[in-house]
Design goal:
With 138 residues, the protein is mainly beta. It has a single domain (23-135), classed as Hotdog Thioesterase (Thiol Ester Dehydrase, Chain A, Roll), CATH 3.10.129. It has one helix and six strands. The chain has one helix at residues 51-70; strands at residues 30-35, 39-45, 77-88, 97-108, 111-120, 123-135. It has a six-stranded antiparallel sheet with strand order 1-2-4-5-6-3, covered by helices on one side. A hairpin with a 3-residue loop joins β1 and β2 (39-45). The chain is globular, with a radius of gyration of 15 Å.
Length: 138
């Protein structure tokens, strides 16, 4: 039996495997860790330098990763239902490698309360608490 350290990850590191989004609307390059229903960690390299828009991109990246973490079935769609809280502490600069982390705080059916953060080199740029609806869409 092979060592667990040599086995393939239990998740696909390509966010396109989980989301219908594609460039320029996909704000995650690679999933680094995924524990469905609990948490996820991802990265993205910024290819833009627009301080006023970077806030929207950071919240959307948290929402996209939160949807991946909350999904319980293949093909589940998702909707950002509410931005409960968002705080910004810096701006994205072109070339930055962003680390996006999310944690599912609680779930009730298809609704999920998600906390997330975006950082660069350990420096926090944004935190947000979002409500997502994730599941089959009518």
């Amino acid at each position: 039996m092979p060592s667990t350290s040599l086995e393939a990850p239990l998740f696909d590191p390509d966010p396109g495997a989980y989301l219908p989004h594609r460039s320029p609307f996909l704000f995650i390059d690679r999933i680094l860790a995924l524990e469905p229903g609990v948490s996820a960690l991802a990265r993205q390299q910024a290819t833009y330098d627009a301080p006023c828009y970077s806030r929207f991109f950071m919240v959307e990246a948290i929402a996209q990763l939160g949807g991946i973490a909350a999904a319980r079935e293949d093909g589940a769609g998702g909707v950002l239902a509410a931005i409960d809280r968002a705080e910004f502490h810096g701006a994205i600069t072109s070339g930055d490698i962003l680390t996006i982390g999310v944690r599912i705080v609680k779930s009730f059916g298809q609704l999920h309360l998600v906390e997330g953060e975006v950082s660069v080199d350990g420096r926090e740029l944004a935190t947000a608490t979002l409500t997502l609806k994730v599941g089959t869409m009518p």
